[in-house]
Write a structure and sequence with these properties.
Length: 339
């Protein structure tokens, strides 16, 4: 490691935060340069940059020759995974996965309860000043308490959600990419908890996802978008679900096939869905999803939190400490996996 290390942040950092980072190692200097949205940085801004803390901005292919590590201020980087800089053999990229798990898991839980207790119909009646006839039948809930919940993708968000569901006495089932795959350590409060027993009653490999889905009252999609997961929640998946099942998607647009979703809803193969992500964003005004009574549209806001910047900085600081001590970094991106 060189005698001096320059960290460039394209995100705001306070003087106190800069001092905290620089206190980790006397070789470290931190520089903040926050361009306007859509703007790039001049070539000289990338000179001698060893570490980059960024949300969207990356150097050009021929810029930042000394760059060795990019810490993203994002949990999902599917929009950046093919960027030429991330293809460099000598570069490591890490994400903010885990730092957004509490708010996304809470959002998923809120959507599950809202769907299960028919809140979209209640809000529609409220908007018309309407006290419904046969309300006891109209508002019969699908209780979360004691239900079977399937989680597609069992990373930091899926595990955090499973932890929240323990208080509802749910049976949690989960599918993950490869049950035998040794993944890099993750970041988050529940990452060190046992994957099964404590959090999930059974685990299924992705190839056996249909066997899991046929058991579930609620299905939550929380997997990254990769070439392998694009369209993963397909017509085959909907055919495997109970007609009474409710779907919640807090993953990435493209994991759920929306043509198959609309067909399943139209044919009564699915009782309802709450969607935070969409293949096209903003969701077009003429999308039929807007008109369906058993749909909740959440405009890609599950990851919002007043604590996001604080959690992001905490992860940056811990990963920086690890980097300086040649320890394994949290949330390393594997280009072969796509996340």
């Amino acid at each position: 490691m060189p005698d001096s290390l320059q960290l460039l942040s394209t995100l705001p950092l306070s003087d106190e935060q800069i001092a905290e980072l620089e206190a980790l190692d006397k070789r470290l200097s931190v520089r903040v340069q926050t361009p306007a949205q859509g703007d790039s940085l001049p070539d000289e801004a990338w000179d001698n940059v060893r570490i980059l803390y960024t949300s969207q901005l990356l150097p050009g292919e021929d810029q930042a020759p000394d760059l060795r590590w990019v810490q993203f201020y994002l949990a999902g980087i599917d929009n950046h995974i093919d960027h030429p800089v991330l293809q460099r053999d000598n570069l490591t990229a890490t994400t903010l996965s885990g730092a957004n798990a509490p708010q996304v898991a809470e959002h998923a839980l809120s959507l599950m309860l809202a769907l299960g207790h028919n809140l979209p119909s209640m809000f529609a009646d409220q908007s018309r000043n309407h006290w419904p006839n046969r309300r006891l039948e109209r508002y019969q809930p699908s209780e979360l308490q004691g239900s079977i919940v399937g989680i597609i993708g069992f990373g930091s968000i899926g595990r955090h959600l499973a932890m929240l569901l323990q208080s509802f006495d749910c049976t949690v089932l989960a599918s993950k990419r490869n049950l035998l795959d040794e993944e890099s350590p993750g970041y988050g409060a529940v990452e060190d908890m046992p994957i099964n027993k404590a959090l999930a009653a059974r685990l299924y490999p992705s190839k056996a996802m249909s066997a899991m889905l046929k058991e579930c009252d609620f299905v939550v999609v929380a997997t990254p978008l990769t070439p392998e997961t694009k369209g993963l929640v397909s017509a085959k998946a909907f055919d495997a679900m109970k007609e009474s099942a409710l779907l919640v998607d807090v993953s990435r647009g493209g994991v759920t096939n929306h043509d198959a979703l609309l067909t399943a809803l139209d044919k009564g193969r699915l009782a309802g869905a709450a969607l935070d992500v969409f293949p096209e964003e903003p969701l077009p005004a003429d999308s039929p999803l807007w008109e369906l009574p058993n749909i909740i549209i959440s405009p890609h806001v599950a990851g919002l939190s007043p604590h996001y910047a604080q959690r992001g900085f905490a992860l940056l600081k811990e990963n920086l400490r690890r980097y300086l001590n040649d320890e394994e970094l949290f949330n390393r991106v594997d280009p072969q996996r796509g996340y």
